[in-house]
Amino acid sequence: MRNESKRRQSGCPIAFGLDTFGDRWSLLIVREIMLRGNKTYSEFLAAEEGISTNILIDRLKHLETEGIVEKNRDPDNRRSFVYSLTQKGRDLAPIILEIILWSGAHDHRPSALRDVLKKIENDREGFEAGLRAG
């Protein structure tokens, strides 16, 4: 898990956000839960970005410690766990939305995914409400 002594002590809100979710993987895990409905370790591991097992474990523990996700026993398989967003995690919805919009405006690669961008353009308020609802 991240070294707590490395946390920025400046009081800057951007630094706080970076300490909380500013690494390469944390928001991708939030995306998996929020946008794709994935909730298990194996589903996160199967994401196209190819997170390694040790990084995934570390980020899930970090997000849980930060109160962004919670881990519970899977009711269908008591040997497994499912992850869900807490209220604090669902409050990241407007940030996720703005990152999607920013990327849509600036990512000109042919491989850039545009489906979710169209959904936002058609009903921004409804899309954000759906993200927050979990």
CATH superfamily of the largest domain: Winged helix-like DNA-binding domain superfamily/Winged helix DNA-binding domain
- Biggest sheet features: 2 strands, antiparallel
Let me know the number of strands.
2
Strand content: 5-15%
Distance between the termini: 26 Å
Shape, principal axes of CA atoms? globular
CATH-defined topology of the largest domain? Arc Repressor Mutant, subunit A
The radius of gyration over CA amounts to 16 Å
- What share of the residues lie within helices? 40-55%
Low-confidence residue ranges? none
Strand and helix order: HHHHEEHHHH
Q: Reading side by side through the largest sheet, how are the strands ordered?
A: 1-2
* Total separate domains: 2
So what's the CATH class of the largest domain? Answer: Mainly Alpha
Walk me through the structure.
With about 130 residues, the chain is mainly α. It folds into two domains: about 5-85, Orthogonal Bundle (Arc Repressor Mutant, subunit A), CATH 1.10.10.10; about 90-134, no CATH class. The protein is about 55% helix and about 5% strand. It has eight helices and two strands, in the order H-H-H-H-E-E-H-H-H-H. The protein has helices spanning about 15-20, 25-35, 40-45, 55-65, 85-90, 95-105, 115-120, 125-134, and strands at about 70-75, 80-85. Strands 1-2 form a two-stranded antiparallel sheet. A hairpin with a 7-residue loop joins strand 1 (about 70-75) and strand 2. Helix 7 (about 115-120) crosses helix 8. The radius of gyration is 16 Å and the shape is globular. It starts with 12 loop residues before the first helix and ends with a helix. The relative contact order is 0.13. The model has no long low-confidence stretch (mean pLDDT about 90).
